[in-house]
Amino acid sequence: MHHNHQNPTIRPYPSFNPNADAEALHKAMAGMGSNKDKIIGVLCQRSNWQRQEIAEAYKVSFGKDLGDKMKSELSGDLEDLILSLMEKPVRLDAHQLHKAISGIGTKENILIEIMTTRSNAQIKELKQVYQEMYKQSLEKDIIGDTSGPFQHLLVSLCQGERDESHHIDSLKANQDAWKLNRAGEQKLGTDESCFNQILATQNYSQLRLVFDEYEKVTKHSIEKAIEGEFSGAIKDGLLGLIKCIRNRNGYFAELLYNSMKGMGTRDNDLIRLIVSRSEVDLRDIAQVYQQKYEKSLEDAIKGDCSGAYKNGLIALVKGNF
Predict the structure, then answer these.
(1) Per its UniProt record, what Pfam families does this chain match (predicted)?
(2) Does pTM top 0.85 for this prediction?
(3) The domain 18-86: what is its CATH number?
(4) CB within 8 A of 174, min separation 6: which ones?
């Protein structure tokens, strides 16, 4: 099924020496204009915990914070990429959620992406780290910034209580399909809580079965029902969640595609996606991207980005092994 182990592009670098790397970065930033490709050569070839060790070694050797030094040396998209690489994954998630919530207009897509694709354990850690970083609970911030059924969906996901087994029950799937049909199309006004309850708590294998049953019962897809019954943020939220349940790699491939399509690149999305998936499943995502869009992820980035920023993203997609 969908549970083969995931394929990252970045693994811990085998002959790792944090002091040598710190020294190389120091040299790359000495003198006029830093050697950006040298910086990428080090940081895009190491795993996140190795980058943390490099930062530690840098501080010991040079008495300066590596992140601060990068900020003063770099700018624009390259700076954003490098600083994202230097953040621990859970802090990067917290940071991105906070930015999505506190910016002008909530970036629903970021909330959906993070809250639907992290494990229960990751969500629990994320809530703790968010609280430490922003002195406010993630749940409170979500409630303060969203409303209605979309808020309820996010609060449900925020509990990190999804069944993570692969246990399936076809009778229950059939009953739930009927329940969803009654809550949606059979009813004047939709009972969102029913969708919420089923989609936010059951395991992915079971939900795929529910979707199959739904199609048998109604003769059309659950997506079509949601398109017809919901609008706005909750519609996007449920459709994102369903995409992710049906095929997580396909969901991420589409998010990457969307970050680069049309005029101008949504660099915040592109950076977050590449960085956050590089040590999880980016190799799988790149494969699906190629099948889906008949173009390699690497070529898409080459066509859309330039300079050292482009080289850094490509290094992460190519990987270090």
Answers:
(1) Annexin
(2) yes
(3) 1.10.220.10
(4) 213, 217
